[in-house]
Amino acid sequence: TYLSRNWEYLLMRKIFAVLLLIVIWNSTVPADILAQSERFLGAWTLVKWTNVRDGETFYPYGEDPIGQIVYTESGRMTAVLMPSPVPGEFPSQFVGYWGGFSVQSEAGTVTHHVEGSHSSRMRRTDQVRYFRFEGSDRLVLSPGGDSELTWARVR
Prior knowledge:
Helix content: 10-25%
Order of helices and strands: HHEEEEEEEEE
Strand content: 35-45%
Mean pLDDT: 85
Oligomer: single chain
């Protein structure tokens, strides 16, 4: 219905506005860090989030989650993830955080230096993610174990 589409549109506009404000806030970083992080730079949209346990695949935020992660030239990042909204309902789950980032190419990891988050437990922590690129437009991040988040480059 019109009201449910309007609600989803307004929610996405608010999320985009928050992401934009976070990305605008930036800092400078050394040139060698920029060289290592070039492939990450830009905006990525969440394609899927899977966990595998005992050979069975689970989808923590459903099979059609929404989210975006942004990496900037100035060494800043922000991430927002949530299940696909149900029309007329506010999402019951949500992950959002921002801060700096650094790439450890030899280890195959990117570290999100969390400065602010939806969760007080994440604030002022380093969140290490194993990474791999699949072609030029897919980024797979994993906190370890059998959990993977697949992102597609926004063009």
